[in-house]
Amino acid sequence: VLNKHLFKNSLYTGAALCFVGFVPFIFNILVARIFGKETLGTINVALSFCLVLTVFVTNFFGTSGNKFLAEYRGRQSLEPFKLIFFTILIGPVVVLTFLNAAMVWHWDYIVLRFSVQPNFLVPMVSYIYFRSFYIIFRRMFYGVDLVPFYAINEIVSDIILIAAIGTVCWLRLPHLLIQSYVLGYSIFTVISILALYKNYAAIVGPLHPQENYQTKSVLIDYFKYGFITMAGTASSTGTGYLSMLFTGYFLTSTDAGLYSSVLAIVSILMFLPRLVTQVLLPEFSKLFGAGEENSIIRTLKYSFWFLFIIAMIINGFLFVFAEKILSIFGNSFSSGSLILRIIIPGVFIRMISVPLVTFLSATKYVIYPNIGGIIILIVSVVTWSIAVPAYDLTGIAAGYVAGISIGIGYQIVMAVIKLRSFSSKH
Question: Is the pLDDT of residue 293 over 70?
Answer without folding.
Answer: no
